[in-house]
Amino acid sequence: MALEITDSNVKELLEGDKPVVIDFWAPWCVPCKMVGPIIDELAEEFKDQVVIGKCNVDENNELPAEYSIRNIPTILFLKEGKLVDKQVGAVQKAELQEKIKGLL
């Protein structure tokens, strides 16, 4: 299961020693509902190597604004606290797996 990432806990996660993947989503977003289960599967698959979580844009304002999130789902890939890749829109699991492997 993916971690819940919020405005208040993201700084601590980004300062950790693992890469971070953040899925920006909302409950009313149909493509987000397609990507959500994939994110949960990837969180389990890479649990010892990468922090993978979801940020609800309806409940968090600062984090989406900081990364200029305009469309959802948007998935950010961060390494050492810096943005290294971005995926906007729904995508297949295999493509996300490759992007995550690129963080390692």
- Give unreliable regions as ranges: none
The count of helical stretches stands at 4
- What is the percent of helical residues? 25-40%
Average pLDDT, rounded to a whole number, is 95
The structure class reads alpha/beta
Euclidean distance between termini CA atoms? 20 Å
- Spatial ordering of strands, largest sheet: 1-3-2-4-5
Number of strands: 5
User: What would you report as the Rg, rounded to the nearest angstrom?
Assistant: 12 Å
Q: SSE order, as H and E?
A: EHEHEHEEH
Question: Strand share of the residues?
Answer: 25-35%
Shape summary: globular
In words, what does this structure look like?
The protein is an alpha/beta fold. The chain contains 4 helices and 5 strands; from the N terminus they run βαβαβαββα. It has helices at 10-14, 30-45, 62-66, 93-103, and strands at 3-4, 20-25, 51-56, 74-79, 82-88. A 5-stranded mixed beta sheet has the order 1-3-2-4-5, covered by helices on one side. Helix 2 links the parallel strand 2 and strand 3 (51-56). The longest helix has 16 residues, at 30-45. The mean pLDDT is 95.
In short:
This protein has 104 residues and is an alpha/beta fold.
Short key terms for the protein model shown above:
104 residues, 5 strands, alpha/beta, 4 helices
What are the SSEs and their pairings?
Blueprint: E1 3-4, H1 10-14, E2 20-25, H2 30-45, E3 51-56, H3 62-66, E4 74-79, E5 82-88, H4 93-103
Parallel strand pairs: 1-3, 2-3
Antiparallel strand pairs: 2-4, 4-5
